[in-house]
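Hey forum,

I'm writing up a methods section and want to include a predicted complex as supplementary material. The small molecule is flavin-adenine dinucleotide. I've pasted the protein sequence and the SMILES. Can someone with a working setup run it? I'll credit the forum in the acknowledgements.
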Amino acid sequence: MMLGYLLARSGVAVTVLEKHRDFFRDFRGDTVHPSTLELLYELGLLEEFLKLRHEKVTSLSATVGDFEFEQANFERLHTHCRFVAIMPQWDFLNFLSEQAKQYPTFDLRLEHEATDVLYENERITGVSVRTPSGTEHIRADLVVACDGRHSAMRAAAHLQVHELGVPIDVLWFRISRASQDPEQVLGRINFGKLLILINRGDYFQAGLVVQKNSFDQIKRKGIEAFRHDVARIAPFLGERVAEIKSWDDVKLLSVQINRLKRWHRPGLLCIGDAAHAMSPVFGVGINLAVQDAVAAANILARPLLRKENTDRYLERVQRRRELRTRITQGLQVLAHGAFRYIFRSEGPLRPSRLFKLVARAHIAQPIVLRVVGVGIVPEHVAGAERESRSLGSTLARTVGMAAGIAAAATVFWLGVRRLRND
Ligand SMILES: Cc1cc2nc3c(=O)[nH]c(=O)nc-3n(C[C@H](O)[C@H](O)[C@H](O)COP(=O)(O)OP(=O)(O)OC[C@H]3O[C@@H](n4cnc5c(N)ncnc54)[C@H](O)[C@@H]3O)c2cc1C
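Reply by user p_vandermeer:
Happy to help. Structure tokens for the complex are below, copy them as they are.
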């Protein structure tokens, strides 16, 4: 949707296909990051966007055993909005599509499912589409697959996926929020599990991180045992865990981390989850998808407008985005390593003194802030006015960041290895 908006804004004729009849879907992340808010500012849409109902998350904190510490404080960012806006993804998508519809070259077709790619002389030249009134063929100068982690288009184009392997799954559910509950996003680690609680106003979107493929085993223990596990990790929820009435209230997110070796073929480009499914760690999947869209629009809008063959520009989009994706996925894999220790014992967790020291020193905070808040190196809308930085300061920031990542990774490992279970 973001790419559709940006291309239409540049005058490119763009057709966005969505297989569902609307954007109402199960929870799949509601985070609009400071970098996305910055893009909306650059596009002149921020003020309008912030009129939509949202919650502001200004910091992330974690509780390990009974030890609580702040992981990131977004108020330290140098962006217009120093918070993550929590908003249902469908509101965000509806907002973007309404803005895009103001451009005459934008065409959104709901209930249009792309089922296959069309070739002409080895080049992809369009897609077959299942519609309520039958199959259609839509021809295009360029097909962009933004059809998510189970992308049918990348499969149809025979693009190879490199799986990174993940030790976790997430079980998502809702629990009502009381006025005295914590305001900000909380990760609570204890009793061999991590519970994420995202404040959604009158309820928490809760995610229990469990060992990969353990959902069947958890189900066999029964819903009462599940409720007990949740209440043990977050005692303040009390009787409210009874709101998880049955397994119908619990949705499994089978976590994947992967990326395509090649994000493109002549006539086709993959971006977002279709090019790289992200782990929920750091909650950055939406941010990366939006950033891919901006990079793709910046590189492709002009050649598309000139009706040039864009094949030679597709590798540039991959090159621009791949390193950032790899670094983010690398950090996610590193964080997954910590889960092996968390899962080791179902007993209460008592963090060691070293762990507390590391956590209190906020050594990892600049990294978490960067990765969660704005992304490794954020994209900007071409031509948008923004603060310019000298080459020297950009270089100093990059070197500082690399050194920070190395230091934080080492200390994080040391700290995590010394987590003690009683
Ligand atoms: C449970 C869950 C929680 C998550 N939490 C977070 C979070 O807190 N923060 C975060 O940043 N990320 C989160 N993510 C990840 C995030 O949702 C994705 O990284 C992000 O939405 C990717 O955007 P995308 O546009 O590439 O793909 P998607 O958002 O998956 O969009 C793909 C779209 O294409 C449509 N589509 C699919 N196939 C076709 C087809 N063949 N033809 C036409 N249309 C099609 C789909 O209906 C969908 O609307 C979460 C994901 C899940 C599943």
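Some notes you might quote in the supplement: The longest strand covers residues 123-131. The pocket of flavin-adenine dinucleotide is lined by residues 17-20, 27-29, 31, 113-114, 146-148, 152, 172, 253, 272-274, 278, 280, 283-287, 289 (CB under 6 Å).
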